[in-house]
Amino acid sequence: MSSRLGFKSLCFLEGRDRVDAVDTRLVASYAVAITFDVLMPVGMVLWARRRLGVAWKVVGWGAAAFALSQLFTRLPMVQVAQYFMRDALKTSSVLLGVWIVVLSLTAGLFEETARLWAFRKPLKDFRRWRDAVGFGVGHGGLESALLVGGLTALGLVNVIALSKLDPSTLPLKPEQVAQVVEAKATIAALDWWMPLLGAYERLGSMVVHIALSVVVLQRFIRGEVKWYWLAVGAHAFFNALTVVVGKLATAAWGPQAGAFAGEAMVTVAALVSLWVILYFRRVDAERDTAAVPARE
């Protein structure tokens, strides 16, 4: 990296009038990913409404649960903590491992507790399989459209701005110029299709959110608290597994392998989640059949 950075710096010093061109394929990939991040949840909501008859209240509380458990609470706390630990996280692999565990556990606790509270209080009259599906669509939909879509849009802005930026023309300190050059080098090394992996991940995450909502709902249908803790544990486990496998693959074979390895774990989680969703759909249908009195 240091030799590449030095080469990039030399290029800027020798060619001040040159401005790097923007990779149109990368821009197009970002645009497709942003569009998918925003429109996929819309399509899922419409499907849940028309096919399953899910109430708007259920979808709305699913979205509110994500906002309350992540946007307004956990994520701000995580950002503050990471800011103060930024240097230590770069130098200590042990602390980084502990931090990954903390992030995974808190994600499970915050989000699954929000689901539990929603089905206990505002949605106490909406405790059917279809309601859990609609709740999961609202929960994962807000994450995809607002959080992930917003961050992807910000990434696109950074790509365009940095690609056109010549730091040698700006009144920056040498270390600041080096940071900008390194950022440009990172963008230049980014494969044009990489943003599409993020869009693929959103689809898998949506399936996981629906399955976790279905599992938490069993706390009330079956009257056993173990279902809540099962959802917390599954959420934390798959979060940690995705990050750890991605990092190990990156260290062994490079960023591309790390990205694909992480998405492979998302795929596994999505397939398991799909089985959970279909299993409890069958259980819900059997319950309905048993509740209908037999005709003489």
From TrEMBL:
Signal peptide residues on this chain, from the entry's feature table:
none
Q: InterPro entries under this entry?
A: YhfC
Lipid metabolism listed as a keyword: no
On whether DNA-binding is a keyword of this UniProt record, the answer is no
The portions of this protein that span the membrane are 27-47, 54-72, 92-111, 132-161, 203-221, 228-253, 259-280
Please provide the record's keywords in A-Z order.
Answer: Membrane, Transmembrane, Transmembrane helix
Q: Which residues form a coiled coil?
A: none
**Which protein is depicted?**
Membrane protein
